[in-house]
Amino acid sequence: MSKVNVNKVKAAGEVELKEKVVSINRVVKTTKGGRTFSFSALVVVGNENGVVGQGLGKAKEVQEAITKGIEDAKKNLVKVPIMHGTIPHDQLGKSGAAKVLIKPAAHGAGVIAGGSMRAVLESAGITDVLAKSLGSANPHNVVKATIKALGLLREPIQVAKTRNIKLSKVFNG
After folding, report:
1. pLDDT at 156
2. Coil, strand, or helix at residue 172?
3. What is the largest CA-CA distance in the chain?
4. How far is the C-alpha of 110 from the C-alpha of 122, rounded, in Å?
5. Whole-model pTM?
6. Are 130 and 103 in contact (CB under 8 A)?
7. Looking at the predicted structure, is the pLDDT value of residue 85 above 80?
8. What's the rounded Cα separation, in Å, for the pair 45 and 155?
9. What SS3 class is residue 59?
């Protein structure tokens, strides 16, 4: 899994990172003085060109939690190999009890995925993919499993070098 430095992304002249809020939870802490409410926000950021990250922010106000989540997500960016709008090969990702299966799809198929997985895949810039969430539907673990699966994807050139074959034979052979 390759991490990307946010300063390098901005310095390279790429588009600004776009954020999507996946879920917001209201958390209650019971104290001697009564109940204290706070918010937890799960945020996904991406440049829609192969870079995606997820973050968690917690605060007393919703907007502050979202801002903290965005800052956390910028620290956890991953580079995703995208080939013709889809991923190069099938991949399984796991986080906690959540399992995620992502498969390449033909051009024009669109993003066929559930809610929190869809946010991650669209933020990464993948336009055609088949995805299935197996196991837990907890948004935190589904997002982590999806990013883990995207981070495990290999570049087609890397696969060709490993197998000692031409790039054209990787997908046609």
Report:
1. 80
2. helix
3. 69
4. 10
5. 0.85
6. yes
7. yes
8. 22
9. strand
